[in-house]
Amino acid sequence: MATMTGSNATAGKPHGTRITVEVPVLRVGAGPSEYEGLNRFVDALRKPQGLHLTLLHVGIFEELGRDIDAWTKGLSPPEKTLPEIASWLTELPVLQGFLGKSDKLIPLGGGRLLGLEVDVPQEVHDYQALLVQGLHVLLDDLGLDNIDDFILSSPALGYRSPRWLPHIAVGKARTRHEPEMEIAPVAIEFGDSRIRNREALPEPE
Questions:
Q1: Tens digits of per-residue pLDDT, 179-197?
Q2: What is the CA radius of gyration of the chain?
Q3: pTM for this one?
Q4: Angle at 145 between CA 139 and CA 147, to 5 degrees
Q5: Domain map (residue ranges) of the chain
Q6: What does DSSP say about strands 52-60 and 18-28: parallel, antiparallel, or unpaired?
Q7: How far is it, in rounded angstroms, from Cα 193 to Cα 164?
């Protein structure tokens, strides 16, 4: 079974409620000035309070329901699937906060963004793999076949690669052809895992 995760790219995506399982960034380096130093590499540095690392990209929630409906030829309509997906998400165990590090900036989203590639502890990789395995089981229970194909082809999910690369998008790239860049190693502190836009999920049945 492939480990499939999504990118943070939003190009061509419909408007709606985007759901991810993520961990917030609590601190980059020794303080704000160390993060602000990344400004010399990007056009517009993101505000530090919005930084996060995505563990599982679930996608535009409303569109995901329609994608599943189309894939199953109407056997799994949104009114059935979305509450079940919401229930699965809200029952996920919480990953406790951890420390990571980065020494590289990489292009993201087809080159539109730059992000820190992050080395994370093995337990984070294990947790992320469990999320993906759980997603496969959930989609199987919802009546989907060829689940890997669905994950990679669903417009809502927007997955681009079968391999998870831990990263934090930090700002807009100056050009669409920015290369990977080595930087001075920086420690990164992460908080407990959470569901982005959890309040927008439907009530489980």
A1: 899 999 999 999 999 999 9
A2: 17
A3: 0.87
A4: 55
A5: 18-100+121-168+188-198
A6: antiparallel
A7: 16
- Look at phi and psi of residue 66 and say left if phi exceeds 0, alpha if psi is from -120 to 50, else beta: alpha
143: left (phi over 0), alpha (psi -120 to 50) or beta: left
Cα separation of the two ends of the chain: 30
Only one residue has tokens 């984070």, namely: 124
Which three-class secondary structure string do you get for the chain? Answer: CCCCEECCCCCCCCCCCEEEEEEEEEEECCCHHHHHHHHHHCCEECCHHHCEEEEEEEEEHHHHHHHHHHHCCCCCCHHHHHHHHHHHHHCCCCCCCEEEEEEEEEEEHHHCEEEEEEECCHHHHHHHHHHHHHHHHHHHHCCCCCHHHHHHHCCCCCEEECCCCCEEEEEECCCCCCCCEEEEEEEEEECCCEECCHHHCCCCC
How far apart, in whole angstroms, are the C-alpha atoms of residue 88 and residue 3? Answer: 18
Of the candidates 42, 12, 33, the one whose C-alpha atom is nearest the C-alpha of residue 114 is 42
Residue-wise pLDDT tens digits, 99-112 = 999 999 999 988 88
Identify which of 188, 192, 191, 189 has the alpha carbon closest to the alpha carbon of residue 102.
188
Token duo for residue 33 = 């000035």
